[in-house]
Write a structure and sequence with these properties.
The complex is a heterodimer of chains A (142) and B (441). Chain A is of the alpha+beta class and 142 residues long. Helix content of chain A is 34%, strand content 39%. In chain A, strands 1, 2, 3, 4, 5, 6 and 7 form a seven-stranded antiparallel beta sheet that branches. Chain B is globular. Chain B is built from 13 helices and 20 strands. Classes of the chains: A alpha+beta (142), B alpha/beta (441). Chains A and B meet through strand 1, strand 3 and strand 4 of A and helix 12 and strand 19 of B.
């Protein structure tokens, strides 16, 4: 199981700068980031090498942060890689709340980070179909 | 009684100060005697050790405790009645939801007396039978609508019961029926100027308007002048509160040097809101009223929380009913948006209900275009959400909807980061009023 840090932020110049500054001071390395906005606020999602530490630091600095369990599914970096994962999730009746993907430098492996309502149930479904997913430690040692 | 061309009620309006005091004492004694017949006041007098029969001067009323909104809110409102329930023909209620509202009951005689008072105000400002009066106030529980409506009919003017809103139709009605007098919330009067411009009309040349009654909202002298100049009207300030009847408590005469309190019907005191002692002659303080001519539900020493002062000297119009100055503010944290009275406590209650925990918040009042806008800024703490934008959007919609139901004005809700709002208690921090018409001249 992997964890992601979700942060509430007002849509104002300088907020992202402050957030990344906090992470820099803690020596946190960011693997992936997404930002989704409403009109005057948004949520920043961060996949980092030490989510607990990042979460604590952000909270301490007054950010409204949330530590969210996610599934980091391993895909093959070739045509049809994402489709395979989506078919398994779809056939298993798993509703994806949010997702994003990224590719590793070896150009063989890609990761799909998915947020679902019932994490362990979704993990069982993926496992049953022979798909792998990474824990926090595995994710960061990559 | 018959109007004499200058006064609607010459007997009452031309009484000298001494006669007025004598009438007040007589009516006060009658009111107290009547009160002694209600379950609430029997207890109220007993607790205060007050003998209503032993009142020989107007000052004797100071031996009674003050009443306020909280007194009215506690329990069944019918316990204030000094008449059988069947004699009640009307109720009005101040803003707020049912649990919090203050209810006032009127007998037929009370409605009649109220109508006469407002007719007196309107006639004093120049309304006559030949006038066409467009009432742009909300009708219903709010007293500003029906109070003026009945009075204008009593004078014999033609009434257009337009109600509030629907700006283009308001302008159309003014033009089609040659409206000469309006009753309007000052901030709405400003907004309507923009609509006039949008449709390519100038209220000065394109309407027959000559009188505007401004009510339900405190406003500055400069705003009055702006309305007078842009509309080509005489604008008159009106003071009232539903607890005393509604509009018709105090009103400007053509001299516009303060609002005459109709002292035949109301006993006014000005007290220091801290010590609750009377202020020095002409000093600023909180207005306290006792109804002197109300049958169904008299109120004694009712604290209005409105800050004002008695205008000293005599009025050029000759009326000796004492005048109060323009309302300078509130001694509590109530504020008014689009004519609706709102307390920060109502906002706090809604936030607590929606969020489950208290949250730091701030109310910001702005002028957008010419209209009031109420923004509610709410801090989103970590425990209030689970990391999704969707959730925040839902939270914001719910807060907005529940606030709309509670305060009857649709606010803009903004979610902000923890620690971004000033922490602390009190009106200065909770309510930031940046509206143009709320600023001092």
């Amino acid at each position: 199981m992997a964890n992601q840090v979700n942060v509430f932020a007002q849509n104002q110049p300088g907020r992202l700068e402050r957030l990344t500054e906090v992470l820099l001071e803690e020596g946190i390395n960011i693997r992936a980031i997404t930002i989704s906005g409403a009109d005057d606020y948004g949520v920043i999602k961060l996949l980092v090498d030490d989510p607990r530490k990042a979460f604590d630091a952000l909270q301490r600095e007054g950010f409204s942060a949330f530590l969210k369990e996610v599934i980091a599914v391993v895909m093959d970096d070739r045509p049809g890689g994402l489709h395979r994962v989506c078919r398994v999730l779809g056939e298993g009746g798993v509703n994806v709340e949010d997702a994003y993907g990224f590719v590793f430098q070896d150009r063989k492996t890609a990761i799909l980070v998915v947020e679902v309502e019932k994490v362990s149930e979704a993990e069982e479904i993926l496992k049953a179909k022979g798909l792998e997913f990474l824990s926090d430690e595995e994710l960061y040692s990559l | 009684m018959a109007a004499d061309g200058m006064h609607w009620d010459p007997v009452m309006e031309t009484m000298d100060g001494e006669e007025l005091r004598a009438l007040q004492l007589k009516r006060l004694r009658g009111t107290l005697e009547r009160c002694a017949g209600s379950p609430f006041y029997r207890e109220w007098f007993k607790e205060a050790g007050f003998d209503p029969a032993a009142v020989f001067s107007l000052e004797d009323i100071r031996r009674l405790p003050f009443m306020d909104k909280d007194t009215l809110r506690g329990g069944d409102p019918t316990r204030f009645l000094t008449v059988p329930k069947d004699d009640v023909v009307r109720m009005h209620s101040s803003s707020g939801t049912t649990g919090q509202a203050t209810v006032i009951f009127h007998t037929a005689r009370d409605v009649e007396a109220w109508t006469e008072l407002v007719a007196r105000c309107m006639y004093m400002a120049g309304v006559r039978r030949s006038d066409v009066f467009q009432n742009m106030m909300g009708y219903g529980l709010f007293t500003g609508g029906l109070g003026f409506h009945y009075a204008a009919e009593r004078i014999g003017a033609m009434v257009i019961p337009a109600g509030s809103g629907n700006s283009r139709r308001q302008i159309q009605l003014m033009r089609d029926f040659h409206t000469t007098a309006v009753h309007v919330i000052p901030s709405y009067a400003l907004y309507l100027l923009e609509v006039f411009a949008d449709v390519g009309l100038d209220p000065r040349g394109d309407t027959d308007l000559r009188i505007a009654f401004l009510g339900a909202e405190p406003h500055t002298e400069s705003l009055r002048r702006r309305i007078e100049e842009s509309y080509g009207v005489g604008a008159f300030n009106s003071y009232g509160l539903s607890e005393m009847c509604g509009p018709g408590v105090a009103f400007e005469c053509p001299a516009k040097l303060g609002m005459h309190v109709w002292e035949d019907s109301f006993l006014v005191e000005v007290v220091d809101p801290g010590t609750l002692e009377p202020v020095a002659e002409g000093g600023e303080g909180e207005l306290v009223f006792t109804s002197l001519n109300r049958e169904g539900m008299p109120l004694l020493r009712y604290r209005t929380r409105d800050l004002s002062s008695i205008v000293e000297g005599t009025c050029p119009c000759g009326r000796e009913h004492r005048r109060i100055s323009r309302i300078k503010g509130r001694s509590d944290d109530m504020f008014i948006v689009k004519g609706v009275n709102i307390f920060p406590m109502q906002v706090e209650k809604v936030l607590l209900g929606v969020l489950g925990v208290g949250s730091n918040y701030q109310i910001v009042l702005d002028t957008v275009g010419a209209m009031d806008e109420m923004r509610v800024l709410v801090e989103v703490a970590g425990e209030l959400w689970h990391g999704e934008v969707r959730e925040l959007n839902r939270l914001r919609s719910r807060i907005m909807e529940e606030l709309r139901q509670e305060v009857l004005v649709t606010p803009r809700v903004e979610l902000v980061e923890p620690g971004s709002l000033p922490a602390g208690e009190g009106k200065a921090v909770r309510v930031l009023d940046e509206r143009e018409h709320a600023r001092e001249d």
